[in-house]
Structure formats: structure tokens, C-alpha cells
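DM between two lab members

TW: hey, do you still have the Dimethylhistidine N-methyltransferase entry open?
JB: yeah, one sec
JB: this one, 310 aa:
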Amino acid sequence: MGSDSFINDVIWGLSDPQKHLPSKYFYDEKGSRIFQEIMQMDEYYLPGCEREILYKQSQQIANEINHEEFDIIELGAGDGSKTLIFLEAVVNIGKKITYIPMDISEEILKVNRQHILERLPDLSVEVLPGDYFSTIRAIESRPKPRLVMFMGSNIGNFPGEKAIEFIRFVNDYLNPGDYFLMGVDLKKNPHVIRAAYNDKKGITKRFNLNLLERINRELKGDFNLKAFEHYGVYNPLSGAALSFLVSMQEQDIHIADHTFHFDQYETIHTEVSQKYSLKELDQLAIKTGFSWDRHFTDSRGYYSLSLFKK
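TW: and the structure you got?
JB:
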């Protein structure tokens, strides 16, 4: 991530009447470490739910894909540890696949490839480092049918219309008969969702505040971390879980040649995590040009792996 785009995004976001910072900047080295802690939290149910579905229903999902030979393209693939569960199920029912993980981090893709080949040494793995908004173009020239995967409830980071735009963007790279598999966090007891973004140990707070620390470190900002509080809220009507940093006092912050004034209790919006009902997912499939969809949920109905067909 170039520091030019970082400084530009920060200045633009903090100049807005409703201050905001892009959530993609959470994930520097320290932020990524803290996020690993979040993934282990009791309150943060999402990874456990996704794994449960993968362990129990991967074979059913694979059986829905009526191609014997196809490419599996994963957007934002990470280390591939969860995907491996699915790939093993696909291979075990005798389908021939090529796995194409895409991620911005070349390093994580090396780990991914090693991970997969340790367990599936005969699998063809072709890594594609870079921003998947660009690298996805590479799949257009591939002749085989395809399944595109977008896991980890990452669709939740696209608010409202942006989610529709993104799924349409994926659809544009699919041919009729291709599939799109998406991890989605479902609407549920609002207290369960709120607790996932307001854990008792304050790990989410550290994760949020690290964004300000990163601005101090990389952009020579002078945020006083003790003068900000993390606040996570969930709106059960809209299905949006929102994260904010709240200025606990009136203060001025300096970054590069810019000064930003904060009133007491003024907020910086840092993240949205959208939740869906199964009915809303059905509507989303229709709006984004898919002919059918099927939902595979965990035992509590907290989470879905939703398979769309073009």
C-alpha cells in the first residue's frame, strides 16, 4: 500500500464533516497480529461458524457444482488454511481443479501455496499476487468453468449499494454456468453481534486505536491515543455493525501540514460490517444477475456460505 495513497486517504477522511478512515489501513503488521487475536476471541463467532460449515458441508457444496473440471479462484485468499478444507472435499469426490489464490500480499500467498501442497501435493496451484480488482482480469482468458470464492464475511465491508456493485463486478468475470461462493454473516440476536465488536478484554479497542498509532508512526501524526475511545454499535434494522473512534476531549491533531479540529465526543467512523438475512441474500442474487442461489448455514444459523450460479 503506497504511503501516498495512505496520506491522501487520511487527509481526505479527516477533512470530511463526518470524519472517517478506510478500514483497509487497519492491517499493518501490528494490526494484522491484533486481528489474529480477535479471531481467537470467544465473542468473535465468525471464523468458527465458517469452519463448521466447511467441515460439515463442503462435500454438499462441491456436489452442487456440476463441472468435473474447473478453476477455483479465491479473492483475498490469505494463508489458505480454511480453503484447504473445501479443496480436499472437492478433490475427494474426484473433481479436477486448479486453485488460483489472489491476495495483495505476495508473502502470504507463498505460505498459502506451501500449506495447500503439503496436504494436496498433486493439486495445481497458481498464485496471483496484487490487488484482486486488477488481477481478476487474468481469469478471463482461462477456458475452464470457474468458481470464484470470497470468504471470511468480507462482503460485509461493502456498505449497501457498494456490495451490489462488487458482486456485479465479480459476475462480469463469470460465464453462464459459473459459480460464486461467498461467506456472509447473518442477522441474529443483536447482543451477539454487538459483543463481537465490543469484547470484554478490549482487543477490538486496541485494533481500532492501532490505526491512529499507525498514522502517528508512518505519517508523523500526533494523536494522543488516551484521548480516544473505541465504540462499536449494531443497528438491527439496517443490519450494519459500525465501529467508531470517539474523541473524549476537544483537541487539535496535526498530520503532515494539516491540522484537524475535534470537538469533544466527535467521532471517526472506521468500519462497517454488514449483516444479511437469507431473504436479503436471495434478493441480492437476483439484483446482481445470478440465476439461483443456495445457502449453507452453521448449526446456529449465524453464518452462511452462499453459492450463486450465473
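TW: got it. The chain has two domains: 3-40+191-274, 46-188+276-309. The CA atoms of residues 36 and 163 lie 25 Å apart.
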